[in-house]
Automatic annotation (TrEMBL):
It comes from Vibrio maritimus. The lineage of its organism: Bacteria, Pseudomonadati, Pseudomonadota, Gammaproteobacteria, Vibrionales. This is Sodium-solute symporter putative. Keywords: Cell membrane, Ion transport, Membrane, Sodium, Sodium transport, Transmembrane, Transmembrane helix, Transport. Gene3D superfamilies: Sodium/glucose cotransporter. Coiled coil: none annotated.
């Protein structure tokens, strides 16, 4: 276990306190069920766009992305090539339909079109699916926080859940969106500190590093193999993941409800477009980080690849870095 220290606890505690204070402050402006579900329709499109991005960039992305590309190389980016195509389709087809019908929930339409039984059934299926997905993210986050802070997994689960529950109940959708903005800032600060440190801390010039990575096939981003057993091919990204991401961004309540909080149809579209084009570069950063780690550690095997960032941060020795990483992981989990 890493010795967390006073400075790191201070950073983590400050982040938690800031999140709760923001939730309480926004909560004072909630005066109706509509305000709770959609805010007061004054949230800027860029904040909504950041929130949508954060919803899909979980702690698993922050830790699992580099772990995956550490072994597979830049070809991992192929599964994200579909974002511009998917988001353009969502903005052109799904978004006008949901926004113009004044929906708070996509399941409202199910009831209007097919009756209450349809709405209840599909809502129940969504909640079960989301509970299972959130449980996986939450458990993975708790294990990482235990590794960093030494707090038992069970208590980590309770802490993360309670914090997210409190600010959501106090401030509704507006609190969720604005806390996501803070969470995004912390997440990306942590990621860019790590990538800058790795980039400048290589044991040889970057030109030599890139030559070595190319020789190992780690820089081959476009894998056009027709082998169906390979996951990181262009075909998997453009065909299979296009269909998957269409369901995620076009029919997932977590995404749609955020966009419905926009001031206008134009703002809702801009928020979703921001997500589609920014997310690709965010994932590229995480994937590039894994490739650089491969060069830094010379492909060394780790018992758990998801802890590569944590191992590096503890070795790097920058005061407060582990506190930022812990806050970033906590932020990524709560935003999801």
């Amino acid at each position: 276990m890493y010795e967390f220290g006073v400075l790191n606890w201070t950073i983590l505690g400050t982040y938690i306190a800031l999140t709760l204070v923001l939730g309480a402050f926004i909560g004072k402006r909630v005066t109706s069920a509509k305000d709770f579900a959609l805010g007061d329709k004054t949230i800027p499109w860029w904040a909504i766009g950041i929130s949508v991005v954060c919803t899909y960039v979980s702690a698993m992305s922050f830790l699992g992305g580099p772990a995956w590309s550490y072994k597979e190389g830049l070809s991992v980016i192929a599964i994200h090539l579909n974002y511009p195509l998917v988001i353009f389709f969502i903005v052109a087809v799904f978004m006008p339909f949901f926004y113009n019908n004044g929906l708070t929930s996509i399941y409202e339409y199910q009831e209007r079109r097919f009756g209450k039984a349809s709405r209840i059934t599909l809502s129940f299926i969504f909640l079960i699916k989301q509970a299972l997905s959130s449980a996986a993210v939450l458990y993975a986050t708790a294990m990482i926080l235990e590794f960093i802070t030494g707090i038992d997994v069970m208590y980590c689960i309770m802490i993360v859940t309670t914090i997210a529950l409190v600010y959501t109940v106090m401030g509704g959708m507006a609190a969720v969106i604005w806390t996501d903005v803070i969470q995004a800032l912390i997440l990306f600060v942590g990621a860019f500190i790590i990538i800058e440190a790795v980039w400048n801390g290589m044991p040889m010039p970057m030109t030599d590093v890139m030559v070595n990575l190319k020789e190992k096939g780690m820089t081959d981003a476009l894998n056009t193999s027709m082998n169906l057993s390979e996951v990181t091919t262009v075909w998997a990204g453009v065909i299979a993941m296009t269909m998957f991401h269409t369901t995620v961004y076009g029919g997932n309540q977590m995404m749609v409800q955020r966009c419905m909080a926009a001031k206008s149809m134009g703002d809702a579209k801009k928020a979703m477009l921001m997500m589609g084009y920014v997310a690709f570069f965010i994932y590229f950063v995480f994937i590039l980080l894994g490739v650089l780690f491969n060069a830094y550690y010379d492909g060394k095997e780790f018992d758990n690849g998801n802890t590569i960032i944590l191992h590096y941060a503890s070795e790097y020795g920058l005061p407060g870095l582990m506190g930022i990483i812990a806050a970033a992981i906590l932020a990524a989990s709560m935003s999801s």
